[in-house]
Amino acid sequence: MVKSAPDTETSDKILQAARKIFLVKGMSGARMQDIADAAGINKALVHYYFRNKETLFKTILLEEAKKFFPKLNLVFESDQPLFTKIEQFAAAYIDEILENPFLPLFIINQINQDTDHFLRDILSRNQPRPHALLRQIETEVKKGTIRPIAPEQLLMNLVSLCIFPFMAKPMLNRTLGINDKKFRELMEARKTEVPRFIIAAIKK
Amino acid sequence: MVKSAPDTETSDKILQAARKIFLVKGMSGARMQDIADAAGINKALVHYYFRNKETLFKTILLEEAKKFFPKLNLVFESDQPLFTKIEQFAAAYIDEILENPFLPLFIINQINQDTDHFLRDILSRNQPRPHALLRQIETEVKKGTIRPIAPEQLLMNLVSLCIFPFMAKPMLNRTLGINDKKFRELMEARKTEVPRFIIAAIKK
DNA sequence: GTCTATATTCCGATAGAC
DNA sequence: GTCTATCGGAATATAGAC
Questions:
Q1: DSSP at A70
Q2: Is A153 close to B123, i.e. CB distance below 8 A?
Q3: Which DSSP category does A148 fall into?
Q4: What's the CA A39/C1' D6 distance, rounded, in angstroms?
Q5: Count of CB atoms within 10 A of residue A74's CB?
Q6: pLDDT at B25 over 70
Q7: Measured CA to C1', what is the nucleotide nearest A53?
Q8: Residue of chain A with shortest Cα separation from B191
């Protein structure tokens, strides 16, 4: 059997289409017909490659979760000084989300409805380990290098500042009266703005 | 016709049940049967009071949107000095979300799928007006009272720091190894921690 | 107003031809 | 592997008795 180029493989077309639909509409909002249409094939063919909707969805979810969670460890596990970690995390994470703007909201929605513990199990294998970072913050506070702050609060601040604007994009666009181009510029600026803001807040 | 107490009225029971279900599961994930069960009545009765699922959903959505958006104007329209505004907003908004933890994610999800522009039209009537706040920040920067920062960035920072942790709660609980009680304590602390953090970042 | 029973629609899934 | 046609279940919605 001769295969066509990988990116035109039917299975890949389905995955690509499914990703697009599921990330925006979620499991219950997506239709197998929509996915088939987006892939330019027949609905039955989707079932031929992936037994059922749930299988297809979990394939996508697993793939995306493996993209999302390990990136968090950038800030947890590197061996840099605190300020450097913060700078690297913000730049890398915002860049990542610029490429996948729907990913954070999708993942958070799935965690919120993870009734069968599918994601919980993925998480337990790709466990983020914030312990080192939290202790690092604690140490800096004790040394008096940075202002007193609960390590958990600082961690939440960093993640919030990087992720939230993407989830709120439609609201921000409207409230600030900006278009997609302007939004992207704001996010590009945030790659340095967020670390600057945080460091100004904690530096003595 | 004699009415029972308002909170035991059938229509109110339905709305209360529908709110609980829709806020967690969304429009497509919710079942009319679930709502009927939660209200302790028959499924047909839901259709008697609200013609169909869409009508019921939009009733809830309208109600919740009217709760959510005007609260944003707390930070936009009050006549206080900048630092006071920030303090008041964080305290009031975090308190509000502590009472309605599912509200932000619900609203943001709806905005993201607002294909029929239902929410867009609500928004255009309850328009948040950030202009005054943005100019206020700009003025302070020019006066040299606070460090240079783009007004839009500061606004995004404030909103992000208040809202995001609630949306990411299940992830935070797991990553930080905390329970609901501890999470609530962290959020209570944030009511003063967020303003302190922001002011430290921008104060000269 | 509230229920039971039933109609209708929608959608995931399968059968079977090519 | 890919399609057309269809099945079957689930969910929304309505009819009609009480």
A1: H
A2: no
A3: -
A4: 23
A5: 16
A6: yes
A7: C12
A8: A153
Residues from chain A contacting residue B32 (CB–CB below 8 Å): none
- Tally of CB atoms within 10 A around A115: 7
pLDDT given for residue B127 in this prediction: 79
Q: How confident is the model at residue B113 (pLDDT cuts 50, 70, 90)?
A: very high
Q: Which pTM was predicted?
A: 0.95
pLDDT in tens, B32-52: 999 999 999 999 999 999 999
- In Å, how far are A179, B16, B49, B60, B138 from B40, measured between CA atoms? 46, 11, 15, 18, 54
CB-based contact A86:A6 (threshold 8 Å): no
Q: Number of residue pairs across A and B with CB atoms under 8 Å?
A: 132
A3/chain B closest Cα distance in angstroms: 38
- Of residues B163, B155, B145, B148, the one with CA closest to residue B81: B145
Residue A5: predicted pLDDT: 44
Which residue positions in chain A have pLDDT lower than 50? 1-7
Find all residues with CB under 8 Å of A48, minimum gap 6, and list them. none
Instruction: Answer whether residue B89 shows pLDDT above 50.
Output: yes
Interface touch B28/A26, C-beta < 8 Å: yes
Burial category of B149 from C-beta neighbours within 10 Å (exposed 0-12, middle 13-18, buried 19 and up)? buried
> Are A161 and B161 in contact (CB < 8 Å)?
yes
